[in-house]
Write a structure and sequence with these properties.
CATH superfamily: Alanine racemase
Oligomer: single chain
Largest sheet: 8 strands, parallel
Strand content: 15-25%
Structural class: alpha/beta
Distance between the termini: 19 Å
Number of strands: 8
Helix content: 40-55%
Amino acid sequence: MAVDVRSMTELYGAISSGIHPSLITVHTDSLTVAEVQRVATLGVSRVVLGTLGNIDDVGDADDEGKQNVLLRMRPQGAAAGRPGLVFDSHEADLAVTQVLKHRRLNLVGLHCDVGSAEDDFVSYPAAVGDMIAQMEHIRRQHGLLLTCLGIGGGTFFATDDEHPLCELIARVDESVDDACATLRFPRPVVVIAAGTEVIGQVAA
């Protein structure tokens, strides 16, 4: 499980509560240019980038340290104008090329949300399948093997399982294994940032 933050208030709150920056993943969708560049100097574990502009904001930050980044992906047919790169698109290819041009950026994987917005993925297997396919495409196009697959969002389909979080992890794990076997892609590390709906059910 990862600690995901989507604002500077959440980031500083996490740090002040004792969570080390190396354990935090920051999503830049709602941050200003100044905030994005500030994040790039804090030593957070991963930064999730959903626009071409944010790639340059982090890549051009006045810091010599390497920054691990993931690209936020969205399904085909997603509404235009929202953060996220559509799978199997020219923009997604351009984003990878743009990241690789910045010496301080280390592209380690892809991220997508399930059920956080109307046009996000509605199932974990669909999200995982498209991400593994995109990772294989990047390997063929750029010779780059991505090693991290991130999933976030608030959707959780209730079951009779007494341990819903364990059931969620098992479902994602099985989907990753199936997709990797089909595409003969090396299994990546899976980072799950469970949404409030999941956390609420676990707490209950």
